Protein 1
Amino acid sequence: MITFQNASGLELIDADQESTALETYQARQANISILLAALNDRLAVHSHKAASKPRHWGYAGDLGSVQEELERIVAMLSSE
């Protein structure tokens, strides 16, 4: 298993180096779990920042963008 560090500093599996469809699928599934955990961690940090500036609409806007992306991802996986 070959790993790499992505742009946000997370160590992920290089799924393109796997030899079968199943191995690639499993590597990508593991990477998604890592990314979801990181998303939850970063959401907690973002929440603390937002709480310190309750009148700042930028934080709400950030989450609007995140929500839209997540909705798009869920819809994509639902359409199979």
Note: Strands lie at 3-5, 11-13.
Protein 2
Amino acid sequence: MDQQTITGTTASEIAASVRALHERGALRTGDALPPVRELAAQLGVNRNTAVAA
């Protein structure tokens, strides 16, 4: 797994992944996240799941 890749299939898993990236310093406050539709497509989840995360 890439250290800078958001992972998960549920909103809570995706949010935890983003949180972990931030805690490791791979994602800093103010960094842009991928667009919701793009993230949902990459993770194979519904757009609403990505929005909830």
Note: The chain has a mean pLDDT of 94.
